[in-house]
Write a structure and sequence with these properties.
Elements (H helix, E strand, L loop, with lengths): L1 H4 L5 H15 L2 E2 L7 H4 L25 E3 L2 E4 L4 H12 L4 E5 L12 E5 L12 H14 L7 E2 L1 H9 L13 H17 L5 E2 L8 H18 L6 E6 L2 E9 L7 E7 L4 E8 L4 E4 L3 E2 L1 H4 L4
Parallel strand pairs: 6-7
Antiparallel strand pairs: 1-2, 2-3, 3-5, 4-5, 8-9, 9-10, 10-11, 11-12, 11-13
């Protein structure tokens, strides 16, 4: 609301216009799930992965854009760009595009609304479960032909739920839908249709556990370091760990540390501060079975 109205000479008229968009398009969102008609309806090459509006040729000219559950509003600065966008999006089956009467974002902007007409909302504001599951399943199955590995729910849930999202729901799909999406994906993965399962995200573990894994391995690597070697190995809890360690600024105030187990079994990285014994780290990645050994 603020983004689209704060620069207007008549912000109250703008707020009324945005309120009407909420009624028509649902909640404002950060990013569409990969299966959403706004992303899948426009033509694309069969192997092309599209995750944002800027990648879609039919939406060329979008500017100052806010996305909603059913569509988006964008505010180009010229009549010509606005008309071209309406014509381009309007030719796509399942989409409807129109210009708004009043300005949004700026007085000299020409807002355009693009709506996915097949998106129907539940009472809670999310996409109707039957449609969401059908679109998700169709797109996921179509990816099997070119897939080399099967991605777990935790690896790709942000692509399936859209953003913002929780562990199994978002502003696009409620918990009922999200739970069934996960079951469908896991059944597809178990069938072998995508190839071997790749684990990388450890989001199924709590932030406290993920932090404990990183801190345990970083501290152990620092303790095992001979103060000279740039890389070395050490064994811990039945796993051979390959560590890389260096003095970040050559002043003994910060050590850059990474530890890797196997090719993709576990990877952690971060910094160790000798004076305070403090550790900071990025999120660990790898296989849950290996990671849990270091909690």
């Amino acid at each position: 609301m603020t983004y689209l109205t704060k620069n207007l000479s008549d912000p109250e008229a703008g707020r009324q216009l945005v309120g009407e968009l909420f009624d028509e398009l649902g909640n404002a969102v950060d990013r569409y799930p990969d299966w959403h008609p706004i992303l899948t309806a426009p033509p694309r090459r069969s192997f092309e992965h599209v995750s944002g509006l800027s990648q879609i040729k039919a939406y060329a000219g979008i500017d100052h854009t806010i996305e909603f559950v059913r569509g988006f509003v964008t505010c180009p600065y010229t009549d010509e760009r606005a008309d071209r966008l309406v014509a381009s999006a309007g030719q796509i089956a399942g989409l409807y595009a129109r210009r708004l009467e009043g300005p949004l974002y700026a007085n000299n902007a020409h807002p355009v609304v693009v709506v996915a007409m097949d998106v129907e909302l539940e009472a809670d504001g999310t996409i109707r479960s039957r449609n969401a599951l059908s679109w998700f399943a169709q797109q996921t199955a179509a990816a099997a032909e070119s897939a080399k590995v099967a991605e777990t729910w935790w690896n790709i849930r942000s692509h399936l739920l859209g953003a913002p999202h929780g562990s199994r729901s978002s502003l696009f799909v409620n918990q009922h839908t999200g739970v069934h999406m996960r079951k469908i994906l896991e059944a597809m993965n178990a069938s072998g249709m995508f190839g071997p399962i790749l684990e990388s995200s450890l989001d199924m573990l709590s932030p406290k556990k993920r932090a404990a894994i990183s801190e345990t391995l970083i501290r152990t690597a620092v303790d095992a370091w001979d103060k000279e070697s740039a890389s070395f190995t050490f064994e811990m809890r039945g796993e051979m760990c390959k560590a890389s360690l260096r003095d970040t600024w050559d002043d003994k105030t910060e050590l850059s540390v990474s530890v890797e187990i196997g090719a993709h079994a576990l990877y952690i990285s971060g910094f160790y501060y000798p004076e305070s014994c403090k550790i900071t780290h990025v999120e660990p990645t790898g296989k849950r079975e290996v990671a849990e050994k270091f909690i």
